[in-house]
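Minimal example, chain plus xanthosine-5'-monophosphate.
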Amino acid sequence: MIKEISSQSLNPQEFIDKQIREICDTVGDGVAINALSGGVDSSVVTALGHRAIGSRLKTVFIENGLMRENEPKKVQAIFSEIGVSVEIIDARKDFFDALRGIEDPEEKREAVTQTFYKNVFGKLVRESGAKYLLQGTILTDVDETVAGIKRQHNVFEQLGINPEHAFGYRIIEPLIQLRKDGVRRVGEALGLTASVFNRIPFPGPALAARIIGEVTPQRVEIVRKATAIVEESLKNTGAFQYMAILHKDKVTGIRNGNRDFGLQVEVRCWDSVDAREAKPTQIAFDVLEKMASDIVSQVPGVVSVTYHIASKPPSTMEVV
Ligand code: XMP
């Protein structure tokens, strides 16, 4: 049982000092590796790890082909400003090969997990000589996985999987007692910029969690374009998280007077404190209309845009 540290009871500086001591004790004079995705949790764990062991933490960005627009370069630039060098690893082929033909949500998550931890990371760890993977698992990831709601891609020991046996390295998870609001406070105390620690959450399986049906490079490109428009349109809402989802079913549309049997994109925007429960954000209708008009005019093949209005539960925030 993991003991939760609520955001209210968290003393960020004490927390940071304790985690740094533990990382140093565990890694000793060895080498650790971590994957930075640009999300809040991995950004905070990267900053914490570098505070603890400096350049003995090798940070990589796995370009899995499922990330948001220009994300690899953007993340590399942000961290270069705070003196952390990030190597971009092109693993697009591994992920798309593993995802080919899969439609079931949990199988999709499992394909991303296995490709990441076994194939791509396993190889990197062997090559780098690292014995430890530092990663930003948080308590909400563990809760939902253990409850059987969603297999969060970064949870192992709580499922009885020993990463050392399964993948050949140990996993260090300094943020595991926190929820998102606590992680943001730690990020702030570590001196990260607000645009990093206040960023909206982004899931480990990345845009694959936002595609109903098969994940192909073409379908990711559609959801990526729609995501960029949604993030730009809703950035001033103050919402916890917002996203575009690509549906599998096509619908009849009309374009230039002709029938266009096209794609549908669903927009979700959530108000939440810690992602355990969430409500749809009440967005002004003119903002929704402008966003829909931008999506249908700029994202090829899309003829329908809907806004999700149910709460979590019974919905979940991501669609997969
Ligand atoms: P759900 O969809 O379960 O999402 O209501 C709750 C929060 O968790 C994020 N999420 C994930 N984060 N790995 C992650 O690191 C995952 O596999 C994953 N799945 C969902 C989601 O974006 C939301 O903030």
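The chain has two domains: 12-197, 211-307. The domain at 12-197 is CATH 3.40.50.620 (Rossmann fold).
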